[in-house]
Protein: TonB-dependent receptor
Organism: Massilia frigida
Amino acid sequence: MNASRISCSLRRLVAGGGGASLALLPFAVQAQAPAPPGPMPRVEITGTHIPRATAETAAAVITLNRNDIERSGKTTVAELLQTLAVDNQGSVPSSFGGGFASGASGISLRGLGAASTLVLLNGRRVAPYGLADDGQKMFSDLNIIPADAVERIDVLKDGASAIYGSDAIAGVVNVILRRDFHGTTLRASFGQSRERDGNDGVASLTWGGGDLEADRYNVLASLEYGRRGAIWNRERAGRGHIGRGDLRDWGFSAQESLGGTGAITASNTAGSAINGNVRNPATLDYDNRGNLAGAGFTRTFPGAACAGFTSHPQGDPGGGCLIDAAQRYNQIQPSQERINFFGRATFQATPRVQAYAELNLYRSVSASSSTPSAVSGAVGYPGGPVNSAAVALGPAHPDNPYFGTAARLRYMAADIDPRMSQIDSDFVRLLAGAKATLGPWEVDTALLFSQNQVSNERSGYPQRDVAFALLNPSPANVAAASANPAYAALAPGSVWRIAENAALNPPALYAALAPARTNDARSRIAQADLRASRQLAELPGGALGVAIGADFRHESAELAPTPGTERGNVIGLGYSAYKGSRNVAALYGEVLAPVHPALELSAALRADRYTDAGDSYTPKFGVKWTPLRTFALRGTYARGFRAPSTAENGVGGLAAYSTAVDPLRCSLGVEIACNPAQVAIITSPNPALSPEKSRSVNVGMVWDPYRRTTVSLDLWEIKRKNDINQEQSDAAILAGRIARDPSGATRPGDPGPIAAVLASYVNSARTQVRGADLDLRQRFDFGPGSGEASMDARWTHLFKWQRTEQDGSMRDYAGTHGNCDVTNCIGTPDDRVNFRLSWERAAWRVSANVNYRGAIKNTLFKNDPAACASHFADGNPAPVDCELPSFTTVDLSLRWKPAPRIEVFGSAQNIFDQLAPLDPLTYGATAYNPLDHAGAVGRFFTAGVRYTF
């Protein structure tokens, strides 16, 4: 059977490395030549359960094989996937140690969120990460995938709910692990930044034995160990604004900086100082404790002078003691230690029956650090906000400059040490199944169990009742704290000495004040499935194929609240908890009809029944047409859905932080209220939530004008309705669902700052995302002895990313810094490009990888009437022209095979040491966008060796 040029080029892409940019393009046409004798081997393709003679379907798929992973220079699958142009807003970077889902990494196709991208292992589900992103969105942790065990990764770029069910609205990432391996491979690598930190060591062992044809069995085992060191903001002091909270050198004021620097910002308003800012009980103005001429001081404290705590440049007009807390205590990258195991055993019981089993085990321990806690932070819990703004030094507290009168305190408790989080994650996936040929049917059935368990231990967080009692031991405060056994065991009259006198505190006081606290999370899937496929009558273009299947699964998830947060008693830590379970049953069918040698039609229909979310019916239709030997058209139409997660419709709630302006106070002339500020946001689950529903359309072409050239262009649109979102913080503010702190008023008529925003999960009206993907691949053969070069490029452009609220208001985030209510506020770039140029000759292979992010307007959405989201000290929009410039990095990778069994490899990430642009809005990193993580780390080198027995 002769294949067209398009079909041949596609097979070369799949077999020879193809590329992250272009593979599995769904176009092939069979010529009219007679078929050769014997059946043609059929392969399983992501997005369909009908095995095919060729790898092309009507859906656009990116395939990354082992060569692509190696040429990228990345050491983990997560890093590689998050550089893809199709990844956008809502992805979860492993570098965000301060997030709700720290310790994990997730991909967000089309910017629709990690919860709308379904991740599969060998075509079946995995248990989601135990901690939900933003406390809401359940997603699969990409870190569980052992890179050395990967055969290929398929990224299906359109909706696939008709085949796989819920969560596939934006697409599917299917990781295909090795299934038949012979021999033993040892691999070791070590990486380090130019600053000699962030050490990244990886060692792996892969072994396989037995031949299915000769021995009737094959066993594969792959073990991988990795250890990555932390990178601290303070270690990048020479990289300009990177990791800095104090941005005065870049045109910002201390009041507009990204971190709590200790500035006294206005009347009755001050940041938390490392030596303490205190409020004059008479005038309500703040002074620093180190100020020997403080207005109304009845005691002075020479030891509290700012110079005794920091050499950081001063200059606050209000007299505060300035430090850069974010630079001193925060991290660019948390440390992580991980171990991965994958094993597969296959037994050919009879020529028609094959049994198999798979075991995945993963364990990681990650540790992150953030700034010491401030004693005055507001937190929330399901009962409402808890405001600690009234915290004060008591009249008799020995460190009170207004001795004799209680004085409010703004103190960054560095004597407690930074807030630390250690996350232990354990993942297990066990699969046992069988494949059989029963007459004309090919049957596959399996039992699956998968679980992720997470333990999160936190330290450095003060207990509110104990802190209040130790700073101001009034009868009411002491009575409230006495229920705590550790506080009750302290000597009567104990006080917390602060700043210069903190060394006087006994260890028992800190044990009562800020004990370590742990909470656990667990998610679990148990599933049974059965699928069968066969060929029916011959059509003009080939055999009519059908597939049917059914599956049943039980899902459960539970997150216990961190002790104390259920009553808002942990300063600086909001409440997050959920618990729920459900059963899901599904039936589906699929048909593939090659009605003509140049025309193929496909259709699928799935019915799902959720015990908590009702029924869902999702169809999908596809067509591919090849009018010319070198040109083809393709298209798909699909419906999709995402059932509410346990965190969204179960039992529990979320109290976290967001950024928002205060329009009321801003209109009253309180300038500081006109800039985005951190506010607590309390969100309640909603059992009445409806599933999200989607409609996606993909139309594309592929053109093979020359033997070594392939070009494809796809236009796509996804419309999603009933979006499950946390209610917008600014919408809740405008609706008046807020709690304020009246004691923070600066003038008559000032209602005081917002302490918390009260919201719930809601079904928004709809989201519409529209874009285009352009893929280009070119190979060059320079003749005998000169090697071969290849070039491939991927460009994804967003025309629109528009969300419509319940009130009809619309916000288009494409090309802007919104949506800042989700996933560390990384923005929604409307252009992302991947470009690779490779050359291979004999034992050598060299690749250059270019990753580009387009410019981002620093607005919360297009045409935002509030205009720029950030401003310089002189009032001008920030950054310059209210825009984050585009960012480009170049990575190099090298492979050398001095002998058939030995391979030496290395890479240099961000080879030109590009600096990430200044980003004053995101909270996922300090002064740079998490998308530009490589520009914060700087140049990074990796070298390794692989030996095959």
Notes: The first strand starts at residue 61 and ends at 65. The mean pLDDT is 89.
